[in-house]
Amino acid sequence: MIRKWNENFRTAWRNPRLRRALLIAVVSDALGFAVIALPPVQWAVDAVTAVLLLVVLGFRWQLFLALAIEVVPVLEVFPAWTLVVMALAVTTNEKTKDER
Questions:
Q1: CA 44, CA 31: separation in Å to the nearest integer?
Q2: Of 38, 83, 96, 99, which has the fewest CB atoms closer than 10 Å, so is most exposed?
């Protein structure tokens, strides 16, 4: 299972749109962790991240799940953006393989 996920992720990484989305998510999670003591700044980072990911990936309901996780004060240290984008990359890759 891990081998299949790794293969799917490497294939998805070749997609420039998914690569941009993952880089946005990683930078956002790093910035969010850096400004954890400043909630208004963290909210701004999350809002900008949500907009950027919606622009790059289009509408995906999973992005709203990540935004909901980021809103909860205790869960804000969890790298939700990165994990959701990684999951989207793997599942998007699986869909394109099935459609071939």
A1: 11
A2: 99
CA atoms 71, 72, 77, 79: torsion sign: negative
Token pair 């950027």 is at which residue?
52
Query: Cβ(70)–Cβ(81) under 8 Å?
Result: yes
Closest CA to 22 of 47, 51, 48, 57: 57
pLDDT tens profile 70-92 = 888 788 778 889 889 888 887 76
Residue 88 contacts residue 6 (beta carbons within 8 Å): no
Instruction: Say what the pTM is.
Output: 0.80
d(CA 60, CA 53): 9
